[in-house]
Fold these 2 entries.
Entry 1:
Amino acid sequence: MFAPKTNPGNFFEDFRLGQVIRHATPRTVTAGFNVLYTALYGARFAVQSSDPFAKAIGYRRAPIDDLLVFHVVFGKTVPDVSLNAVANLGYAGCRFLAPVYPGDTLSAASEIIGLKENANRKTGIVYVRSTGFNQDGARVIEYVRWVMVRKRDEAAPAPGDHVPRLLVALEPGMLGDACPPIDTAAYDFALAGSPHRWEDYAVGERIDHLDGMTVEEAEHQLATRLYQNTARVHFNQFTEGQGRFGRRLIYGGHVISLARALSFNGLANAFHIAGINGGRHVAPLFAGNTVFAWSEVAYDPAVILDLDYWVLLPR
Amino acid sequence: MFAPKTNPGNFFEDFRLGQVIRHATPRTVTAGFNVLYTALYGARFAVQSSDPFAKAIGYRRAPIDDLLVFHVVFGKTVPDVSLNAVANLGYAGCRFLAPVYPGDTLSAASEIIGLKENANRKTGIVYVRSTGFNQDGARVIEYVRWVMVRKRDEAAPAPGDHVPRLLVALEPGMLGDACPPIDTAAYDFALAGSPHRWEDYAVGERIDHLDGMTVEEAEHQLATRLYQNTARVHFNQFTEGQGRFGRRLIYGGHVISLARALSFNGLANAFHIAGINGGRHVAPLFAGNTVFAWSEVAYDPAVILDLDYWVLLPR
Amino acid sequence: MFAPKTNPGNFFEDFRLGQVIRHATPRTVTAGFNVLYTALYGARFAVQSSDPFAKAIGYRRAPIDDLLVFHVVFGKTVPDVSLNAVANLGYAGCRFLAPVYPGDTLSAASEIIGLKENANRKTGIVYVRSTGFNQDGARVIEYVRWVMVRKRDEAAPAPGDHVPRLLVALEPGMLGDACPPIDTAAYDFALAGSPHRWEDYAVGERIDHLDGMTVEEAEHQLATRLYQNTARVHFNQFTEGQGRFGRRLIYGGHVISLARALSFNGLANAFHIAGINGGRHVAPLFAGNTVFAWSEVAYDPAVILDLDYWVLLPR
């Protein structure tokens, strides 16, 4: 009788290779985002905490946290890309292309770069390259993710069959310009919280970041709503209580931000995430669990996040 | 020995017909309110999310959410009007009269427009018209609510007996000017998240907004304190644990904002609440409960909120 | 093989009398801090709530809450002073020296003013004078605290033995200039929420602030992370579950801010904390507990905070 007005999300057979989706809800990220982000994770990197510190080394002011930019852009993609997802399988090639400052407005678009139906014909894997833009149309972030999405109708023909070649790792020349040229002489290592510079770290070094953080339902829900991420599994105990885990699932990005904040203790001068080579959520996280972090995480059974990323440190 | 310094709140016999109360605690609503409000409810309306989107269609910038204006003004009325309330019975004739932008300062006053003692002489119904003002003294919101308030002393004479005639519904000509003239041609329906315009909706249409949101104690407490609402039933488990429900009661306005945010899925272009004809909290909500929303809510036993309101959509 | 990069915190034998520590992570306190602070505690003092109210009486705009300044500065001292603390024993001589406004950047330093090993040789008491600065290097807050800190090595020689003479109470002449000269004639007592002025209060008067506030884990964690306070006992249920109390311990400053917010009901015009003579956390607080406040707290077994402070009220 009436045309349906709600968005059921796209199913696997709704996607087309090369399709470009402009996502809804541009978002002005004011200084208050930074405040709430600190309250959610407790990060202490001086560049994102202090306008004078950031200005001294070359930023216009304290920038919006790199991962907060990621979460806001990711959130916009959810209603179009992963509302009917079974699992978020991985990330690759995440580059931070331009600084984002309080007052900037983020919007997002995604291109479908791969589609592969699963053998059971019930689901398929969707590969998307998502890009975040600022109010001037400049690209601020770009990343690939792949996600397993349900089909609406098992019998529907598969929309193509193409698995893109993904970068195993970014090369240094591919890293973006989210960090302006830094005046290292103006970088105050005491205020930053550690004397350890780029040359103090060595390939193969493992850092146990020591501290643990127990997550509450209210915390991850506040965060995930802040990112305007609408994935239902994070918010609805009534439905999830009857589901796979019997619990609300915590947004994987919440874990990434917790791990990043914990990493301060050992990587205090790694003030900018220059790129994320790849990431996988290896196990689900639930409220009441306590998150710990290592700077090189091994594939052991208790691992919930495996993130391979570039950070920028002053020499 | 010492004059009491604490505010016990007004009891039924303390009110007088025609009395005007100037409420305490003017509040500057900065952009950070908007951020925390998003984290609490997850609303995605583009006008309130993005400065450029709001400017393009005619706002000075992204305005403060209509319901956030309501909550801040409502909060100010609590210490004077409903600290000794047994129940908040209803709202009527809520009009949004002028836009509220980050940086504006809200204050509030209420006029007692009706008083009716109950037959048991223990309580009475107080009808108030509350008005919110900005820093220039301009009215930004006006609404009527009625509330059952305890008497301090059963034997006290009732302070008059007058039941005001309340509007069943606002007429279009009564709606306020909180929304400036809109340049519909500049309204980007893709960024707004839905192609459905005013003419796509029909009288009698029912929309199930699909998603559910489970509420945590920390969330409704943060919200209700943000609004500087001091009603004790929301915060004190020690006392409420011994009371009627054995639990903290969630501020009714928290439910309204959750329902509004959920309504985005189906009403994404209904970017402004032009007026609230009436509303009743039909059942209490407690932490752990999951809120769902329909755009036309029926009087069925699981209903916790029945809100009849006008929204503004582009044609 | 690799130099350790993580900060284990200082142990008792690491401190030296007269040592000055510059703490890490300068923090720009934007208007959003004020918003989240209100959501966490619900304070209603008009000066901190409203720019026009604050301006009318002589402030540049609504200042950052005094205790929020305290918490941010305190948070910076934790990684250097109390990461290996057994107990935070007390505060003295806390003075608020200059107003802090949104946009100011706070940093902190501490001087070791006393050291006293305990007889068991396992711990010692460290006395520090901590000072907060703004971006111009002006002192905004100063206080002494003493804390019992573990030794790394029982056999290590004690680093001196000096117990400083602490002020029992500040004298009026010692109070700082965080409050500008006030135009009392412009102070609107109705908007402030109470008619009671300085001369209405009497020595010996006790005020029961009536209201109670139940604390949730998510709330104190959000607050303590906002302050970038890294004390492990507040965040890690995995470890604390096996510890002394079996629970996460709530940051003592959270209790101070709750008590201050509750004190509005009886002390609405006490808009500025002019100084804190001394304070002790007499018992731990845990999530689920409900906090009540009196303006003069007696040493009775249910007391969790005993704070002796100066407030400023208009005559």
Entry 2:
Amino acid sequence: MTTRRRSRSARATRRAQRTRPRHDMLPTLVGKLPLCEPMDAEQLHRIDAASMDILQEVGVVFRDPVALQDWQQAGARVEGERVYFDAAHIRELIASIPSEITYHARNPDKNVSVGGRNSIFVPMTGAPYVCDLENKRRLPTLDDLAIFHKLAQMSPAMHSSAHHIVEPMDHVISHRHLRITYSSMKHSDKTFMGMTTSGKNAEDVLDMCAILFGADFLEQHAVVTGNCNGNSPLVWDETMLSAMRAFNRRNQPVLCSPFVLGGANTPSSVPAAVAQLNAEALSALAYTQVVRKGCPAIYGHYLSTVSMQSGAPMAGTPEISLMNFMIGQMARHYNIPWRTSNTLGGSKLFDAQSGYESATTLAAVIHSGAHYIWHSAGWNEAGMHCSMAKFVVDAEQCAAAYRLAEGIKWDDFGDALAAVRDIGPGGHYLGHPHTLAHFENAFFMPKLFDNNSIEQWSAEGSLDTVDRALNQVRKLLDEYVEPTLDPAVDEALRDYIDRREAEIPAMEALNQEY
Amino acid sequence: MTTRRRSRSARATRRAQRTRPRHDMLPTLVGKLPLCEPMDAEQLHRIDAASMDILQEVGVVFRDPVALQDWQQAGARVEGERVYFDAAHIRELIASIPSEITYHARNPDKNVSVGGRNSIFVPMTGAPYVCDLENKRRLPTLDDLAIFHKLAQMSPAMHSSAHHIVEPMDHVISHRHLRITYSSMKHSDKTFMGMTTSGKNAEDVLDMCAILFGADFLEQHAVVTGNCNGNSPLVWDETMLSAMRAFNRRNQPVLCSPFVLGGANTPSSVPAAVAQLNAEALSALAYTQVVRKGCPAIYGHYLSTVSMQSGAPMAGTPEISLMNFMIGQMARHYNIPWRTSNTLGGSKLFDAQSGYESATTLAAVIHSGAHYIWHSAGWNEAGMHCSMAKFVVDAEQCAAAYRLAEGIKWDDFGDALAAVRDIGPGGHYLGHPHTLAHFENAFFMPKLFDNNSIEQWSAEGSLDTVDRALNQVRKLLDEYVEPTLDPAVDEALRDYIDRREAEIPAMEALNQEY
């Protein structure tokens, strides 16, 4: 047993460490937990063979003249807009996709990796509504977006500031991608995502990346991620493909994401839906290598299942979990980093449904071994709104899941067993030196969940999860410190935006409230 | 494609099937999903060796003269109340525990099994408060308990009616076990649990089981489950041990459950906490075989981790998930069925926190392969209340998890792939015969979660999860049909209760409100 004096001083130090705000980013998650692999080798090969049959015999539609020409030149059979692929050709093309990607952030301490057992959490994007600091659902502004980028910056388990977490509706749509990109770059020094709303917009994002990182640096390093959704079944369109090419040509990775509404645009069968999705993903992944051999690319997907009673997409269902496990196996088979979606849900409120759906999704994601874990904070109402309250709760739950994925810590096992001998039957461990030295790291303590007695909880105002989370959002915004950005770079970015906004016609904003 | 007439008629049949209330119990869950096993063989043996060292060198306190005498006669070294065990002796004793148990329900169609890949879901028990049909937290009555037994009967994924889901506070405490047992037997024909509040109370439960099943049948078949909590670290007390003996002597299984508050009554180390818990469980499991060799028994535990800031127990933390995975490995190593706790949470409300904690726990439980999945519906506020709303939501989520655990269904894979060829790029599957034939079984649709648009949700009254769940509770209670019980048996049970209530002094109820 340590002396009282020493123990008091150690306790004071620990208390001081606890009270200092800690917003340091967690490093890349290096998973150690074994993954859930529900397919044996024969079943995996059945999926692979079925996908190759689809690619060869059904084909994939590329609604884009450039892509069709590219495929023809690459040696694929093109009939109209439909491209038929030889399995060997697909395998040869995807073989040049790097199995790991290191993302360079403007703060090199915040570089992260995906691939192998390396994973990162990325906030949600694309919400046309916000649930704000008063938990009111409304159209979002550029200031709301800035708040989310600040929260991403301050959430230890968020490895990226993403891009349009909410749509800044107070800005004309044709200029929006510039302001979104600047907000991601300015309010956070983590890696971020790039808009793919058109080929031209993607070029703007990449030009801004060249300003932030240098054009030569960009050529050699991944600094931004784009996303290109497929139109399942088996269609890729011009908007997405032109943005994909813009990213590929600058050697930047894109998520190749078939958009699955299970039962509506796939068969009503989990393995057949995966076989179709796999064919779709492979066709786009192969295309990235036609555009630029060796360019990094990520096996993507968006997964939901559809309620046949209402036609509504559902989240957190067992089939989505199974499909995640299977897609993980396929991506590892092809040795390509892969993306999934996290903490999804369809609730209109941040209520119990929202919690169940989000946690169910998060658990499946961890057991699936996904690398690029997108939509990891804020998603609610099937993506129609991003909730400030939910953002911080999801971010904390991702930090908890990070601990889970790290697996069992054996380093102090011997000391801890010695404590069992010290304490013996009927004692307690609260004052034991091993407990004092290890409890903070041994057991994760969520700050946003209340585990006190009902008496204490009542005395503290009977706050629900939303109340506590919004208090935390306010606290984080008070503590926020903007990361330093070289003033010359900042000015160059602003100049670029000014120039482009003068060049691009200001199309009317979608909504007239702003 | 099928004809319109045929398709319409098939659709009408399906609609009729959907509208008919379906409350059939799901059979025993036979898991097919691979389990999460974070320990390799060497690590598993480190835990086993550490537990055996604890049993040999630290010993376990049995605060019970009968048990101490039993252990002495069995050849263990007894010093005062402390028993020291030889590892070989422990291994020899636990070797006679059956690796599977079939529970016989009074309706044989509802027999279930635990062990191997067989698992069952059992509702929560022991809540001193109820959150009722108006979502009001108050002291529960015997009528409230009956409501929960009816809900357990009507929930397809609940395989048991358990016992005192809530404490019937309107009944004197010394008679309560009789009324609780009768309520379990009367309102449900599923298997149930037996009170272990004392050896005498346990005898009453077993006498009532003998009336329901026949004394000879009882001797040869498991019909009821008791639970005996340990006083961690390393203590078993007389109340629990006397109840355990009562069950063992009648050949009925008991959950041998160390009660872990990680960090408070275990070391602040996941593997060392598991080593201690494992030693505790083994000592009680071995004792069941001293009492009656070959008697079924279940490796139990209650797991929480403690917030070192408040002392409060926490649920859904990553360490609890890891411990579940590890305990699963240990129990499989010893080839003994094991119990875990499901859908736990500390929230005072049925809110987002409650959803996250419950779903996180449920996911860990499924990946751990637990057999006797207790506390699977209703648990909230760290077990201080059982919520009627949460009960039905948890039960539906268990049905979803049941699907997950069943794994991938390959039976219609070929037909589903043929549909991909039929539909081709850019089509949709909604009218395809394969979709019509399979969508209901292909994708789980939770009825209590709302996935409609916000417009439709608003038009339907903007109900939250609690509102929808309580509507469902009311609907179920309207549809409830009491399962037939032989009037002679019913009379014999009532006579037994009358006689025992005359014999047992009516101790004052804990609370004077009733």
